[in-house]
Design goal:
Length: 605
């Protein structure tokens, strides 16, 4: 192959197929890297160095064949991404380091078994990410956006090794929402109204009006209703999709639909987006879910799926020469891709909401189920399912995803920031509550803009509250950083120590920083004003008629700072009838010496 015919995309695809092959054929007894995103990036960098550019396509095909020989075939992935002529030269796995080969036994396929989640890694922003959907999105992006025609009958099998699909090369002009991409996204990007996004799903979009029975997760007493979504009447003709988008299907749509196929009883508590805890944060090895009955569509899976879709979208729109994949991931899980702080993992939910509309995602979930039904007619969950039933599943899956995931902030659980145990016995709250009390931490005074500093601030505040104040735990219900994340304090279910005399009536939410003369980041303000309380109302944790108050309205203090309180007074939910209590003297918070700060370190436990 001449240099003129060398194609960087072929190299990147070759790297991915080698990594896919390694992930599917682990070798026991080799050293393993910690389950960190940095380890995955290290593996990609090593593969990029090992694979000759002139053999990239051959190498990709070789590892594709190896993957097919080593376990159950993913029929949807094969049909959408692998339906090519397979002529390969095999790469000797021993050309790769023992550490890379050892990593594969820990990051195989994504799965949930006995309360443990496998195939996930810890990212620098503190989030846990499933590797499989991330890599699938990168591969789909390298191949370009494609409208894939669904097979009209189950006899058109795509599984013959020599089969090619000439009808899968069309570009997809309408998959993304009106937002054309993320080149102009600002660091303080604010998500779209996700609730309104879902309300646009109409009968005209689906030719069917399935209902959404049941209740939302975390709210056993609050029914879910949607006036725009109704069950189809008997005899209703359902118009099913005839094409799908390969990127959305291999990352998100197929697995989202499968998670909602088990019957109406799972729609009320699907376990969608369940998070978990690592055994340690410096060199993680095992990840245990907080809910042992969680669906496979966990928080880590959704994070990986969104990251794969967003980066795949970026790759599909980026001309040659592209960044090496190891560099792309380093930037995405760092300060932002190509110097754009708006395209980074911290903002995956906001960017995910802009990537595709709810009607489009519903069609993609529905189309993915149709495709799987065609490719695998004996699939136990799909046998006998009518188009009306598949449409209803797709509608419910999209509704739950847009409301319970995209419509809620990303909250790091206590174990993620290294919380010390609660001292004593916590007192349960009587939910739903009617108030949200706004604070600033004052100390730490600087806003925290990355996970390491925010987690250190959380540990410092908890230490001060427990050891100096003598409280059982950190006082706040939640703390909001300037890194795009919410940090769990006492959480939704336990009485806090944030607003004297009112702790059992409302949640205490604090911004990290001193906001006497300046305001928090726009994204952090949006979380507290809209996203966090909106999510709590939908979950039955906060009353629909809730009110917001500044700390100074109930306690003699300067908190939450003059600048922040002046802004709070303009918010629609502000309780203007409660007058601020004038501080007779400087508040204890402002007079006390700053607690000793726990500096960020590589290990948080």
């Amino acid at each position: 192959m001449s240099l003129r015919s060398w194609n960087p995309t072929m190299v990147a695809q070759g790297v991915l197929w080698v990594l896919f092959g390694l992930l599917l054929r682990p070798e026991p007894g080799t050293a393993t890297l910690p389950l960190l995103m940095d380890s995955v990036i290290q593996a990609l960098a090593e593969l990029e160095q090992k694979i000759p550019a002139t053999k990239a396509r051959h190498t990709a095909s070789a590892w594709l064949l190896l993957a097919q020989e080593s376990g159950p075939r993913d029929l949807v992935h094969h049909f959408l991404l692998e339906g090519r002529s397979l002529k390969a030269t095999r790469l000797d796995p021993h050309q790769l380091s023992p550490e890379l080969r050892g990593l594969t036994k820990d990051v195989v396929r994504h799965g949930v078994r006995a309360g443990q989640e496998y195939g996930v890694v810890l990212a620098p922003d503190g989030s846990t990410v499933a590797v499989e959907p991330l890599l699938a999105g990168l591969e789909a992006g390298l191949q370009g956006y494609r409208v894939v025609n669904l097979p009209l009958d189950s006899t058109a099998s795509p599984l013959d090794a020599g089969a090619t699909f000439a009808d899968t090369e069309a570009t997809v002009p309408d998959v993304r929402a009106t937002s054309p991409g993320f080149r102009d996204v600002l660091p303080d990007v604010i998500s779209a109204d996700v609730g309104a996004m879902y309300s646009n799903v109409r009968a005209a979009d689906l030719d069917v009006k399935p209902t959404s029975p049941g209740v939302r997760p975390g709210s056993p007493d609050v029914p879910v209703t949607s006036p725009d979504v109704q069950a189809p009447s008997p005899g209703t003709k359902v118009k099913s999709p005839t094409t799908v988008d390969s990127l959305l299907v291999v990352t998100l749509a197929r697995d989202l639909g499968l998670a909602f196929l088990q019957g109406p009883q799972t729609w009320s508590h699907s376990g969608l987006g369940t998070d978990g805890c690592w055994d340690q944060l410096s060199a993680p090895r095992a990840f245990t879910l907080l809910d042992s009955k969680a669906s496979p569509v966990t928080m880590a899976f959704l994070n990986g799926a969104l990251d794969g879709a967003l980066l795949g979208d970026y790759l599909s729109r980026t001309p040659e020469p592209r960044l090496p994949l190891s560099h792309l991931l380093s930037q995405y899980y760092g300060a932002g891709v190509a110097g754009n702080p708006g395209l980074c993992s911290n903002l995956r939910r906001q960017n995910g909401a802009a990537l595709t509309s709810a009607p489009t995602l519903t069609q993609q979930v529905w189309g993915a189920l149709i495709l799987l039904q065609k490719l695998e007619p004996t699939h136990p969950q799909l046998q006998g399912m009518s188009q009306e039933q598949l449409a209803q599943v797709a509608n419910n899956a999209t509704k739950e995803f847009t409301e319970a995931f995209l419509g809620c902030p990303a909250i790091h659980p206590r174990c993620r920031w290294g919380a010390a145990p609660y001292r004593g016995l916590p007192t349960p709250l009587q939910l739903p509550l009617g108030f949200l009390y706004v604070h600033h931490t004052y100390v730490p005074a600087p806003p925290c803009t990355d996970f390491a500093h925010c987690a250190a601030d959380m540990r410092s505040m908890q230490s001060f509250h427990q050891d100096t104040r003598g409280w059982d735990d950190i006082g706040y219900s939640f703390v909001v950083g300037s890194d795009g994340y919410v940090y769990e304090g006492r959480g939704w279910h336990w009485v806090g120590a944030h607003t004297r005399g009112h702790n059992s009536r409302g949640f205490g939410v604090a911004f990290v920083g001193n906001y006497t003369a300046e305001l928090p980041a726009k994204a952090a303000l949006h979380i507290v004003q809209d996203v966090l309380p909106g999510c709590a109302v939908r979950a039955g944790l906060l009353r629909p008629d809730y009110q917001m108050l500044g700390h100074r309205q109930l306690v003699r203090t300067d908190c939450p700072g003059d600048a922040l309180f002046d802004l709070l007074r303009t918010w629609p939910r502000f309780a203007a009838n409660v007058k601020p209590r004038t501080a007779r003297r400087a508040s204890r918070r402002s007079r006390r010496k700053p607690p000793p700060m726990i500096l960020p370190a590589s290990g948080l436990q």
